[in-house]
Every structure is written in C-alpha cells, then in structure tokens.
Design a protein that fits this description.
The protein is mainly alpha-helical. The chain contains 1 helix and 2 strands. The chain has one domain. Helices cover 48% and strands 9% of the residues. The protein has a two-stranded antiparallel ribbon. Strand 1 and strand 2 form a beta hairpin. The structure holds zinc ion.
Length: 66
C-alpha cells in the first residue's frame, strides 16, 4: 500500500482509497491496475512495432536487391 497525492487538494491519501479523505474527490489512482495493464500492452505493441521494422529493414533488401 502506497500513498499518492490527491489531484485536487494535493494532500497525501492511500492509493487504494476510493475518494480523497481530505476533500472527498474521487481518486483517479483507483484504476492503477487498468493503467499498468494498458502500459504493459503499450510496451508489447512497441516491441512488436520495433520487430516489424527490424524485419523490414533486414528482410526487404534481400527480396528487392538494388
Ligand atoms: Zn483531496
């Protein structure tokens, strides 16, 4: 369990709190799991993109020799 700064009042709140204990604003850190999942997907997508680029860079010159 960590602590995060409330986006609205800036005070420290537990990262698993549904709402800020100081100002009552809904915590945006509740979706932590979703956000880290999205980041993981983004990294996988980025790696796939790099692999596809590497594939074209190394494979295409052999198919179409200049
Ligand atoms: Zn707050």
């Amino acid at each position: 369990m960590g602590q995060v700064n409330c986006l609205y009042c800036g005070k420290r709140i537990p990262d698993d709190a549904a709402e800020c204990t100081h100002c009552g604003a809904v915590s945006h850190f509740q979706k932590k799991g979703y956000r880290s999942g999205a980041r993981k997907r983004f990294i996988l997508l980025f790696i796939a993109l790099v692999l596809i680029c590497a594939f074209f860079v190394f494979w295409l010159p052999r198919v179409f020799p200049s």
